[in-house]
Design brief:
219 residues; mainly alpha; 7 helices; 78% helix; globular
Amino acid sequence: MTPWNEARAARRTDLMTTVLLAALALVLVFVAAAWTRDWPLFSLSPPGGGVADVSEAQREDLHRTFFTIWASLLLAAPALALLPLAARAGWAARLWRITWTASLLVFAVHFWWAVVELFGNDWSRVLNTPRVSAPRLDTVFAVWWCVDVALAWTVRPDQLWVRLQRAGVHLLAFVLFFMGAAREGELPLSRALGWGFAAVVAAGLIAWGLGLRRRATVR
């Protein structure tokens, strides 16, 4: 098999792994939402109190919305941790692309469930609800994320403009995921996931720094 055919085969394998990983995460999320649909885990009123903006009949949709963003966060954590290593390690690059793409697929379901199912595709509600701290920035981030994933599967990653925009979207992902979970999370579990997310990303940066130091010592 030629190197070109080997690369194509590896890409197909990675794509299948990505889809299966995202599908597994979504199955678990939907099962969890159905199992807990009668549990008052999340408030039907927006942060700060006031009139409920979600009906009791939408509780399962509310759970799906929260659980999908948690699943997306859990998949994004290894992606952000692996990005610094991806430039020098082929296995890290492949695993980064798989987890980064799977996280986006799950995030897309979260985005749909929040906007269409929970808020009835009423953007006036989406843009003005205190449940979403930065809806316009979230939307820009979602589009940018889609662009970066498309580039990850089609464009060589060693081009400077690709690396710069990728660093930017990953930094934004870290800020939005961390702030949304650790700082604004409604439940202790959400805040714990946020801090765990930060710890995983920090571990990736530490591993990358140690690798640089080791290479410098060898030289």
